[in-house]
Specification:
binds adenosine-5'-triphosphate; nucleotide-binding; about 25% strand; ABC_transporter-like_CS; six-stranded mixed beta sheet; ABC_transpr_LolD-like; 9 helices; four-stranded antiparallel beta sheet
């Protein structure tokens, strides 16, 4: 567990709507993502039981655990797609439970990036258009923050994000014309293009060979380390977890172990104890 801070920043962001539209003015004063005592049950089954996590900006956290330990529920709660029964989830200081569905959707679109194993790129759109999609879907483009603080048109921002992931020359290509690794790079570019506070990744390298997987994880690692988003990654792969700053292990919905910058061997050893 990343440890709950002793003190919180003094003020929560202004109005709910303003908070949903943009990051708080003192963005760095808030954890990028905070789960405070999050519990979630389905009927009598407790999927999460009092999970505390604090991710400062730029922190890369891996979450591991056996099947059924609560990883997907954790991701869903962090994304505001599922609602905890107890506890709170805040993104950059914005309490997701305080928002209506429309504003929560806005937070997901503008302030959270998603990278999944099964990509979800739209086959009829080019790489550039896929990456620009979150910006094009935004009702107010002015509310989205450019990578360098300057407002840029969505397609130009998409090109910059594609360059960031090493695909400056494949912007016109369609997903079917790209390799699996290249498609996952496009997915990373799409997650980065809104300059989100948090990236939520679910088995982002599960479908890739080990070398390509390390390259894609390296992109996420570099993007977060360079003052970018915090990354919360669910993975079953000890080599992937070893790329993170910290790995937490879930057992029956509780964080039962934490390793700092673990080796793949240390991760395997801890998994065996879960
Ligand atoms: N919608 C639901 N209805 C009922 N039970 C659920 C639901 N979602 C999750 N659960 C239960 O909650 C527990 C945690 O599930 P979760 O999917 O979060 O685990 P997981 O660690 O992601 O598993 P896996 O690695 O297999 O994807 C499991 O016992 C699961 O059966």
């Amino acid at each position: 567990m990343l440890g709950r801070p002793r003190t919180h920043p003094p003020a929560r962001p202004r109005t709910r709507l303003a908070a949903a539209r943009s990051a708080p003015a003192g963005r760095s004063a808030y954890p990028a993502l905070e789960l405070d005592g999050v519990s979630r049950s389905y009927g009598s089954r407790r999927a999460l039981a009092g999970v505390d996590l604090v991710l400062p900006p730029g922190r890369f956290l891996a979450v591991m655990g056996r099947s059924g330990s609560g990883k997907s529920t954790l991701l869903a709660c962090a994304a505001g797609l599922d609602r905890p029964d107890e506890g709170s989830v805040t993104v950059g200081g914005t309490d997701l439970a305080a928002l209506g569905e429309r504003d929560r959707t806005r937070v997901r679109r503008d302030r959270i990036g998603f990278v999944f194993q099964d990509l979800n790129l739209l086959p009829a759109l080019s790489a550039r258009e896929n990456v620009a999609l979150p910006l094009l879907l935004a009702e107010e483009q002015s509310s989205a923050r450019a990578l360098d603080g300057e407002p840029l048109a969505p397609l130009r921002r998409a090109d910059r994000a594609l360059a960031q992931v090493g695909l400056p020359d494949r912007a016109e290509a369609y997903p079917g014309q790209l390799s699996g690794g290249q498609r996952q790079r496009v997915a990373v570019a799409r997650a980065l293009v809104t300059a989100p506070e948090v990236i939520l990744a679910d088995e982002p390298t599960g479908a890739l060979d080990p070398v390509t997987a390390q390259e894609v994880l390296g992109l996420l690692r570099r993007a977060s380390a360079a003052g970018g988003p915090a990354v919360l990654m669910v993975t079953h792969d000890p080599a992937a977890a070893a790329m993170a700053d910290r790995t937490v292990f879930l057992t029956d919905g509780r964080i039962t172990a934490t390793l700092e910058r673990p080796s793949p061997e240390a991760v395997r050893g801890e998994l065996a104890r879960c």
